[in-house]
Design goal:
The structure is a homodimer.
Chain A (H helix, E strand, L loop, with lengths): L2 H10 L2 H20 L6 H12 L5 H8 L3 H13 L3 E6 L2 E9 L1 H5 L1 H15 L5 H16 L8
Chain B binds a DNA duplex through α5 and β2.
DNA sequence: GCTATTTTGTTGCAATTGCAAATATTGCAA
DNA sequence: TTGCAATATTTGCAATTGCAACAAAATAGC
């Protein structure tokens, strides 16, 4: 077998290859959608998370995303400037903050959920509903080994 | 239903969410592996592609990856400097180049394939072989709507 | 044959990212 | 109680990225 064959076989049998490609496509689609809200992908993700789980610390958010602390910090800078979230004092520690969605932030929830739904529909357009559900299940299984779920 | 519920439901039902998270995890794992070869993720991807399909133009490579031209250009700069690929003249056009793997580049094929195999094993560790195959099939289906496959 | 347009690839510069150090606070242990 | 390690977050600076302009070559229209 030639090197080309080896490599081709490796690639076409590689989940990672397709996941990376899909992720890039998703980034593109999300960027399209988020332009209307003037949110970066990171800000969007954090805002969604904060609406879902109000009053988390930045470290808590980071853990959930596997997003580095400085990225959280800067994304929240932007969201705070735009009045979508606030950094409230943590009751038990003066160095941690509770990140809370403002009313303005929470008001975006339906729109943001719609964005996700649209992108998702686009992504799964080639799969039957049953197969799409199964796909989701596999994604969750694969990821669950590296993450927790639910609020705090 | 509260906004938190809406958002939570949206997220947990979103393929995109999990794909993005998985992609980030993969990036981390790949970075770990590629440190040994001193290759960026982009250089790795292009080198693999060039070994698989020798003598493509940069535009051809870019199309296959959905990678922007300047990223290709700079990644190949790095690979060329390190003697892993060359820019050969295109027979029919003086502005296009044929990107070819050198012997040194091709020599990395087994190692690079092994990297992919290891990362992939890690990724699918939670799935049975049958389910892993099915998962791969779904990824291909989902992506195929946006890509071509094979050489030239 | 001559100009306009498109294709192919590169590059300057500004924005973004990421590391590593700094800041501030907390807890622990001698 | 004091000093030392750990935690939570921010920030300076260097590396990377991405846009948009550029250059060069090929193609098309006149």
């Amino acid at each position: 077998m030639t090197d080309a064959d080896t490599v081709r076989q490796t690639r076409t049998a590689s989940h990672g290859w397709y996941i990376q490609r899909l992720a890039r496509q998703l980034d593109l689609w999300m960027a399209e959608e988020l332009a209307a809200f003037d949110l970066t992908h990171g800000q969007f993700a954090i805002l969604m998370m904060v609406i879902e789980c109000d009053g988390q610390t930045q470290a808590g958010i980071g853990q959930r995303f596997a997003m580095p602390p400085y990225a959280i910090s800067r994304a929240i800078d932007g969201l705070e400037t735009r009045g979508l979230v606030t950094r409230a004092p943590h009751p038990g520690s003066r160095r941690a903050h509770l990140v809370r969605a403002t009313d303005a932030g929470r008001a975006l929830a339906p729109d943001l959920a719609a964005v996700v739904a649209r992108v998702n529909a686009r992504l799964t357009a080639g799969l039957s509903p049953e197969r799409a559900t199964d796909f989701l299940d596999m994604l969750q299984t694969t990821l669950s080994r590296a993450t927790q779920d639910g609020c705090s």
